[in-house]
Design goal:
Elements (H helix, E strand, L loop, with lengths): L6 E11 H15 L4 E5 L6 H12 L13 E5 L9 E6 L6 H6 L2 H6 L3 E6 L13 E7 L4 E9 L1
Parallel strand pairs: 2-5, 2-6, 4-5
Antiparallel strand pairs: 1-7, 3-4, 6-7
Length: 155
């Protein structure tokens, strides 16, 4: 399915390995902290869940952050007063056949809940209900151990 979103205004870029990324997490967090809807784009195994794990651990969570591939949605609680949205929903829509599955699960209402921060994988499957103020984190494999991460605004 083609995405109907256009992204512009690249506002962050990083390239390196996992150790480099761990050091970069504070700067990445500073770039996304005010955003509530964050789309994660990258092929399978690119590191989308790893990125969410690193961010959640940086901010402080007692929850085990894991891939939502089979559960479709995982919820994490962040123990940090500085986070505007202490409840995170990490979703993965790769396995759904139709947007109605996400709507039937109540995801559209969850997106409208201004108290939740969303990290959404495979958003192109549900693009009709994704708010237009989302940002995109694109993760590209450069080598087996290296990634390029860019952040863009939705246009």
């Amino acid at each position: 399915m083609d995405s109907i979103f256009l992204f512009m205004d690249l506002f962050y870029s990083f390239e390196g390995n996992l150790d480099d990324l761990k050091k970069e997490i504070p700067q990445l967090w500073d770039s996304i902290a005010v955003h509530r809807i964050i789309l994660l784009q990258g092929e399978m195994g690119a590191g989308k869940t790893t990125l969410v794990q690193l961010l959640a651990n940086y901010l402080g969570t007692d929850d085990r952050v894991q891939s939502p591939s089979y559960a479709l949605m995982n919820e994490y609680f962040i123990n940090n007063e500085d986070d505007l949205y202490p409840t995170w929903v990490h979703s993965d829509w790769f396995r759904i056949n139709d947007i109605s599955e996400a709507i039937d699960m109540g995801f559209q209402e969850m997106l409208e809940d201004i108290n939740l921060r969303h990290f959404i994988e495979w958003s192109e499957k549900i693009n009709e209900i994704v708010p237009k103020d989302a940002i995109l984190i694109k993760i590209e494999k450069i080598t087996k151990a290296s990634r390029k991460i860019t952040l863009s605004y939705l246009m």
